[in-house]
Amino acid sequence: MPNDQAISYTDAMEYFYSVAEVASHLQIQPETLRQWNQRFAQFLSTEVVALPPRYTSADIAVLLTIQKYLDQGFHDDEVRSRLIPKRIMPPTSSTALAANETHGLVLSDNLGMPQVVADLLSTIANSQQSVLSGQSTVRDIVNVMVQDNFNLKDENRKLRDRVLELERVFAEYQRREETRKERLEGRMRGLEQTVMALQQQTAQIVQALRQRQRRRGWFG
Predict the structure, then answer these.
(1) How confident is residue 33, by pLDDT bands cut at 50, 70 and 90?
(2) How many C-alpha atoms does 155 have within 13 Å on its Cβ side?
(3) What's the structural domain count of the chain?
(4) What's the distance, Cα to Cα, between the start and end of the chain in Å?
(5) Mean pLDDT throughout 109-121?
(6) 174 to 160, 164, 181, 188, 191: CA distances (angstroms)
(7) According to the 3-state scheme, what is the secondary structure of the chain?
(8) Which structural domain range is residue 158 located in?
(9) 145-185 per-position pLDDT tens digit
(10) Environment class of residue 6 by beta-carbon count within 10 Å: exposed (0-12), middle (13-18) or buried (19+)?
(11) What confidence score (pLDDT) does residue 151 get?
């Protein structure tokens, strides 16, 4: 039963996402996500209806497609009709078991049946195995894409926070520069007033000195 062991190992390595994580990733409210769970349950895994709900990478890929169609204005029935031919069913243990049993039947009955029939069954078994391998590869690709999408959103959030922080620092710098400018202007006005006052005092002193000189000339 090597295939069953491989599938169990793959299922064990599957990473599940919470309602909050998926809602944040889709940028929708958790209540909207729960409504989608009910409206499009046939296209989601059984883990979605668990308590608490858990989402696989394939579920997120389906929800992204649903969101795209709903944003384009399609009704639920139209969305379902577009999802049905595009849905990729994950391989199940029963499918793998059927493939193994078929392969075992070919090996066991190969001696007692015509060579053509044996070759045909062997080809079918190999095709089923190729389909299972292809589906597993697709699941791995979807996992990587979803994880990269999460990482990209996290990097965008960090970048946005950094930009907001820089804007805050720049605004604080502008405020300080405005305050410093106002203080400098106030000091300049104070200096100008002081200079004008000194000029007036100097003029008064010069005028007083001239008046003294004139008096001395008169009484000299």
Answers:
(1) very high
(2) 6
(3) 1
(4) 137
(5) 53
(6) 21, 15, 10, 21, 25
(7) CHHHHHHHHHHHHCCCECHHHHHHHHCCCHHHHHHHHHHCHHHCCHHHHCCCCCECHHHHHHHHHHHHHHHCCCCHHHHHHHHHHHCCCCCCHHHHHHHHHHHHHHHHHCCCCCHHHHHHHHHHHHHHHHHHHHHHHHHHHHHHHHHHHHHHHHHHHHHHHHHHHHHHHHHHHHHHHHHHHHHHHHHHHHHHHHHHHHHHHHHHHHHHHHHHHHHHHHHC
(8) 2-169
(9) 787 777 887 788 888 888 988 888 888 888 888 888 888 88
(10) middle
(11) 80
Structure tokens at 95: 């499918």
In one-letter notation, the amino acid at residue 149 is N
The number of beta carbons lying within 10 Å of the beta carbon of residue 83 is 16
* Position with higher pLDDT, 201 vs 140: 201
Does the residue 28 lie in any domain? yes
Q: What number of residues does the chain have? A: 220
Considering the domain boundaries, does residue 15 fall inside one? yes
The verdict on residue 220 lying in a domain is no
How many CB atoms within 10 Å of residue 170? Answer: 10
The torsion angles phi and psi of 73, rounded to 5 degrees, stand at: 95, 10
